[in-house]
Amino acid sequence: MNGPKTVIGIDPGLYGGFAVIRRHGQGGDLVEVCDTPRLDSGRALDPVGMSELVFEYADPDAAFYIEKQQPFGCDSRLASFTTGQRYGYWMAALMIARARFCIVAPRAWQRRLGIWGSSAATTKEASLILARSYFPDVDFAGKDGRSDAAL
């Protein structure tokens, strides 16, 4: 098998997710999927909890894929700042752990997996449907952050 034995996906949003896939042959098993660690009754990310997740899986046979974050033109200055701050927490954890990682644009992975051509009402709905088809035994609890991380 070429490539990493463990693939980790990160959706870095406030309601994002963290997913770990152990590869074997042509497939893989989703061995962990969870929400991004949060504090303050869910209103803020937990940088220590995020770092603990990264350090748990950071080894030479693992590769992390993190969804690129950027502000939208309609975002307020505060929204842009907090988006960057959350992304920065994940990036710092990856760099400090010396983890191998790749930044992936949302449209790139969504297009590759056919989410943009889907008949679903939204990309979030399409992500949940596709993740459930790949991993039918996993409970995504209706959370697109978990499904995005798994995909």
Could you walk me through the main structural features you see in this protein, from its secondary elements to its overall organization?
- There is one protein chain.
- The protein is α/β, with parallel strands linked by helices.
- Helix content is 38%, strand content 25%.
- The protein has five helices and seven strands; from the N terminus they run βββββαβαβααα.
- The longest helix is centred in the middle third of the chain and has 20 residues.
- The radius of gyration is 15 Å and the shape is globular.
- The mean pLDDT is 90.
SSE order, as H and E? EEEEEHEHEHHH
Mean pLDDT, all residues? 90
Helical residue percent?
25-40%
Derived structural class: alpha/beta
Tally of DSSP helical segments: 5
| Overall body shape | globular
Beta-strand residue fraction: 15-25%
The major beta sheet can be summarized as: 5 strands, mixed
CA radius of gyration: 15 Å
Report strand order across the widest sheet. 3-2-1-6-7
Give the CA-CA distance, first to last residue: 20 Å
Poorly predicted spans: none
- Give the strand tally: 7
List the helices and strands and how they pair.
Layout: E1 6-11, E2 17-24, E3 27-35, E4 38-39, E5 44-45, H1 47-57, E6 62-67, H2 77-96, E7 101-104, H3 106-112, H4 123-134, H5 144-150
Parallel strand pairs: 1-6, 6-7
Antiparallel strand pairs: 1-2, 2-3, 4-5
Helix pairs in contact: 1-2, 4-5
